[in-house]
Amino acid sequence: MSTVVLENVTKVYPGGFVAIDRMNLRAEEGELLVLLGPSGCGKSTLLRMIAGLEEITSGSLWLDGRLANDLTPRERNVAMVFQSGALYPHRTVRGNLSFPLEIAGVEVPEIRERVEALAKALQIEETLDRRPHTLSGGQRQRVAMGRAILRQPSLFLMDEPLSNLDAGMRTELRMEISSLVRSLGITTIYVTHDQVEALSLADRIAIINRGVLQDIGTPAQVYNDPATAFTAAFLSSQQLNLLAATVRTPQNQYVLLDFGPSQIVIPWTDPRAYAVSRHTGMQIIVGIRPDVLVPVSDQAEGPTLVGRVRTLEYHGHEWLAFLEAGIPAVSVPQPPDQRRHLMAGTTGKARSLIRRMLGRENGAAAQPPSASAPAGSHRRADLIVRLSSRPAWRVGEYARVAVDVAQLMLFTMDGARIDPPRR
Ligand SMILES: Nc1ncnc2c1ncn2[C@@H]1O[C@H](COP(=O)(O)OP(=O)(O)OP(=O)(O)O)[C@@H](O)[C@H]1O
Ligand SMILES: [Mg+2]
């Protein structure tokens, strides 16, 4: 059992690419912490730094209260399971499973007993005398998992261990991993880019984008109360509606979200009204999950949005409707490109070299994206509505949906929550 603490951990690869930027993170003893983020965001880099397979450029890593930056992988006593279940190809399954016990000097009869018991628990006892290349992907991952368990590590590090498997096998092994690591009580850091896997497996989820921590909390906290627009969008099972609205406070009577063709009132009784009103005259981002929009009649009271039905899509268990509502769309705000940090503290020659490297002679890459002109804001959004059955709408006609104001997610143009999340 082990705690893991990262303090301002940064990774700069040779060539200057900042893969992890001042990461602060803590995994509690026995916790299953999931690192979630898109491809290239730095998940594997982070895991490899914890394992000791990658040097930490700056910052501190503490394992069980001990500064671990300079410990060898062996001294850290971690077991890592990779995406492709890296096994020794010339050893049988039994040989692979026995290996960590042989290294530890365990007696042969005990090795046999422990390997067979675990193989039975992992449902791979039939494969014990076979070589890895004769196994299915799922079986290989079970062997890799078994070998990690037999090492009795203080810490499990798993890098997308299920991503090569088909959906059915993924669900099955996911449940097994969950109950296995919890029954062993071993602290586990698990990397995935699959939000369903993260939500269903984690005690807590850390969401990472471009090497920067976006949010951390229990699955319910980060899903229902996301700290950033990026988190809200990444965890949304359908595309999240991200709309630009101007905040107005007419005669101070209420707070108005002005979408252009339509408006929504936030009454002063709403706990977020004051925080939103501080953005009066400015644009903000309003996030609306497609399932909180409910079709209503034209006579409906309360806040609504209207749009022309562009398409109705059948998805088997649900329908998605795309409404042209004439509201400006906003792209998911990204943290500034890490490469700009290269420019900090550099002068003259170095700067022009970096600019050339980035292919921007004019140095435009050094600028963070403009918060006041979000990419895509000139575009009109399609309002996506999720429905459990086919609506009585016809393509080309106007349709009205009710909006539950309490469920609107409100962000600044750079993607930070306007009303602080409760953690
Ligand atoms: N040895 C290296 N040298 C330079 N850049 C690297 C190196 N290894 C990784 N990177 C870069 O660092 C970034 C983060 O890579 P990393 O493998 O950690 O991402 P990831 O989140 O695990 O992505 P994926 O989900 O695709 O596995 C990527 O842009 C990658 O190209
Ligand atoms: Mg990776």
From TrEMBL:
Keywords: ATP-binding, Nucleotide-binding, Transport. InterPro entries: AAA+_ATPase, ABC_transporter-like_ATP-bd, ABC_transporter-like_CS, ABC_transpr_MalK-like, ABC_transpr_MalK/UgpC-like, Mo/tungstate-bd_C_term_dom, P-loop_NTPase. One of its GO terms (cellular component) is ATP-binding cassette (ABC) transporter complex, substrate-binding subunit-containing. GO terms for molecular function: ABC-type transporter activity; ATP binding; ATP hydrolysis activity. The keyword Transport applies. Residues 4-235 form the ABC transporter domain. Transmembrane segments: none annotated. This is ABC transporter related protein.
